[in-house]
Amino acid sequence: MNALENLATAFQAIFANKLRSVLTMLGVIIGVFAVSTMLSLGQMATQAITGQLNDIGGKTIFIQPVYEAGKPYQLFTQADIDALLRLPMNDVSTNGSSLNITYRNKEVSVNVQGTRSNFNQLTREAKIVQGRYFSVFEEKSASQVLVLSQKTASKVFGTESPVGKVVRAVRDNGNREEYTVIGVTQDLGALFSNGDSGFIPITTSWRGGYQDRGEYGYLQFRLNPEASTEQVQRQVQSILERRRSPESFSVTNVDQFVQQFNQITLILQALLAGIGGLSLLVGGIGIMNIMLVSVTERTREIGLRKAIGAKRGTILQQFLIEAVALTALGGAIGYVLSLLTIVGMAAALPSIFPQVIISPTTGIIALLVSVLTGVLFGVWPASRAAALPPIEALRYE
Predict the structure, then answer these.
(1) Residue 394, Cβ neighbours under 10 Å: how many?
(2) Is the pTM of this model over 0.70?
(3) Alpha-carbon dihedral of residues 244, 245, 248, 252, nearest 10 degrees?
(4) pLDDT at 171
(5) What does the radius of gyration of the chain's CA atoms come to, in whole angstroms?
(6) Which of 22, 34, 178, 322 is the most buried (most CB within 10 A)?
(7) Phi and psi of 111, rounded to 5°?
């Protein structure tokens, strides 16, 4: 018998015992499904998160003071910003604060960022979808104007248009004020949209806040498109070291966070793939057991074939092809189920998985691993079948 005849015989044996074949393939199906799904969903989640990080903080440098217990720390000042603005970047530093706002019978605690009037033009963090951002005049005059996120505006005003509405607010220091809502920004995405947020002029945030006018808890700069992040970061470090102690601050950028995040996700994906691979091991052992049973059941058939001239290699090939056919078919079914799951997850959770990632390489590897599993766990049963003496096989009852 040639290889094609052995392949046809293998599929006849598989379909002759459908339930047993399905149960045998189940371990391989689950293993390939788990590995393929975990890897694809991991890549999709990683891309979504890194995309949001780059949208919000791409080509952005952060400068933070180093806090040591029991020691005072030095805040940054406008003079520090002016010294750094000689570099190819724009100041997008903010001042965090909170407002407990009330509108009619609804009360919401909002984390607000005090920003410059051009903040929404330099970043994607405050993309206006309704109304407007505050003006230079409103910034200079410390106007009590407020821009809310979509989520927060919906929570406070429901279906009403928030633009032009006046809300009562209580500041961190207990001061009671009134703010006019002038705009609504797009929510930042699934990763960053938790909590209620908004924006006010930075001069307004300083008034009655924890920091004096012109002081910053941290600095943030958006680089010009043509600027090199690494080069500018070194220049920032050099300028600030001439103004303060090198141990009193740290300079980082989003690219560093993204690299660290990617390394972590790769490790997690490898662990998940390893867990899924255990199912392949279990499936391989199941296939080996079933193939041993099959050899026992077909002992007389093996003896008959040898009696009419079938060689050892032909018998070995027949049972090995049957084992590989089982695992390859199981791998294909597992991969198809994985594709359906990935597409379904992306359709059901578009905010978490905005883009479907299906890697042909993953499918090829899954099928190759399935075939390899069949080879590894089919060799012993096939060798045992091929080694049977023809006379003893014909006498087997």
Answers:
(1) 16
(2) no
(3) 80
(4) 86
(5) 33
(6) 322
(7) -85, 115
Say which DSSP state 195 is in.
S
DSSP letters, 125-188, are TT-EEEE-PPPHHHHHTT--EEEEEHHHHHHHHTTS--TT-EEEEE-TTS-EEEEEEEEEE---
CB < 8 Å & 24+ apart, contacts of 348-351: 351/189, 351/190
β 176-185/145-149 pair status: parallel
Q: Can you give the length of the chain in residues?
A: 397
Collapsing DSSP states into helix, strand and coil, what is residue 396?
A: coil
Only one residue has tokens 């995405």, namely 189
Structure token digits, residue 245: 């102690």
Q: What is the mean pLDDT of each run of 10 residues along the chain (397 residues)?
A: 65 73 80 81 77 66 82 83 92 89 91 92 87 94 94 91 93 86 82 74 81 83 86 92 88 77 77 72 72 66 65 70 80 88 86 76 75 72 65 54
Residue with tokens 């505050």: 134
Contact 149, 184 (CB under 8 A): yes
Q: Which residues pair with 166 in a beta bridge?
A: 180
Q: Which two tokens stand for residue 337?
A: 């189920």
The edge-to-edge listing of strands for the beta sheet with 60-65 is 89-91, 219-223, 60-65, 249-253
The vertex-233 CA angle with 228 and 238, nearest 5°, equals 130
Strand pairing report for 249-253 and 89-91? unpaired
